[in-house]
Amino acid sequence: MKLIDQFDTFLNDTVNLNQTRVGDLEKSIEAIKQAIRDSDWKPKIQSWAPQGSWAHKTIIKPVDQGEFDADLLVFVHPVEGWTARDYIEKLYEALRENSTYKDKLKRWSHCVTINYANERKIDVAPCVVNRIGARLEVCNRIDDEFERSEPVQYTDWLTAKNGYSGGNSFRKVTRLIKYMRDTKTRFTCTSVLLTTLLGYRIQSADKDTDAFADTPTALKTIFGRLDDWLQANNAKPTVSNPFLLEENFADAWTDDQYMNFRDKIHTYREWVDEAYDEEDRNESIAKWRRVFGDEFAASVDIDEGKSISKMAVAKLKESVSTAALFAGDLVDAIKSFGARALPAGFNKRPYMKAPKWRKARTGTFPIFVKAALYQSKGYNKLRDVVSLDPVPKGRWIEFTAVTSLGLPPSKDEFTVEWRVTNTDEAAYNARALRGGFYQSEGGQSRFEELSYRGVHLVEAFVVRKRDDALVAQSEPFRVLVE
Question: For all residues of the chain together, what is the average pLDDT?
Fold first, then answer.
């Protein structure tokens, strides 16, 4: 399911750099420009230009709430007798004379960085114009060499790609994938390399096509094309600057980093496709969260978790005439009217974690959950329990995964993980809606304490050890806590 509104909210609230920080950045940039103009730095300045994610409009909010980077190019005329190192060193020295910046400076190979602690870093990079013919060159301080560059044309190329995608979707997709990279930390890929790879996946013929109808569709399209291209390249390919072919952005990768990137993108492409194609809204939210994390559709936890009882009772009163005067909650409704009191789709809560294992193609089998009530964890068994059998708070339930033969799957061949999902106001107020996966505790069983009034869900997932494939998933066991 596309969930376009949820994507818009996720981008605005979580991924995009907020406008206040953008405004502060722009003020800092103007102050830096003026400080350089007023300094005794010798080069004659021709112009200024943003560079990198700031210029490309793909900058994102730091996922750790730390500093973000912005790049500023200063185009200058050549200074007779200066080497490449001089442009960096002397810019550094000139800014050190300014009391505002002298304690914020650091030199790198191609720039001078001004660090606003815990907020932002601005890299100022000199770019020499027409030192040899009609060409632009950045300065390598370490090697003391001039290096040809085409930053303005590269930015224009990305702007064109964004225009072909429509709806600003190329930039939005780039931000989303950078967010994935930074939150999951499962692959290595510099921003310029990642942005170039994605840019190459869009052509002029894509303009106004259904492949870029909206943000989630554009994400699916670009991910699919990137994965197809990576799978066709078994060894690390060349990823050239489209306007400077000798500049290979893929040089930043080791062979192992490339192969890991290739594998991870293939996995994430499958996850994106599954989330996009899922027709059930709650299940789709869970699958998109597997891609982006719990911040995606975060408000749904509040809406769906806290108010499930009220929504269920309201629907029950609409559909069952004898319930018109009913005044209890969902627990009372089930005790009075049975399972029909549960709303459609109850078994799929949007805050459930999606399974992380790929589904096995062979060797699957049915799995079931049986349950027993205990006085305390592991002691004094009281009775067996069936789904929606009322049980009191303060007791414990042992859940066991069993096959159609009534026996647990072999511990030598399989592991059993449990998805435990709570609902209703008591669990919400305790910040215990859960929805994640938990390991078995000896054998193929797990104990859970009965802490919150409501109807809760427990599911067994059987994973084959030899290939980490999901071979069985039970129906949810519904725990009715009084």
Answer: 94
**Predicted TM-score (pTM) of this structure:** 0.81
Phi, psi at 367, each rounded to 5°: -135, 145
Tokens 């912005």 belong to 70
Can you tell me the mean pLDDT for 412-440?
95
Checking if the pLDDT of 443 tops 90, the result is: no
Strand-pair category, 414-421 with 379-385: unpaired
Any residues with CB less than 8 A from the CB of 70 and at least 6 apart, and which? 25, 29, 50, 52, 53, 54, 59, 120, 121, 122, 123
Give the pLDDT confidence score for residue 299 in this predicted structure. 80
State the pLDDT confidence band at 301, using cuts at 50, 70 and 90: low
Q: Please name the fold of domain 19-149.
A: Beta Polymerase; domain 2 (3.30.460)
Tokens representing residue 152 in the block:
């303005």
Instruction: Specify the CATH number for 358-481; select among 2.60.40.1530, 3.40.50.10490, 3.40.50.1390, 2.60.40.10.
Output: 2.60.40.10
- Domain ranges in the chain? 19-149, 154-277, 358-481
Nearest one of 166, 176, 179 to 63, comparing CA atoms: 179
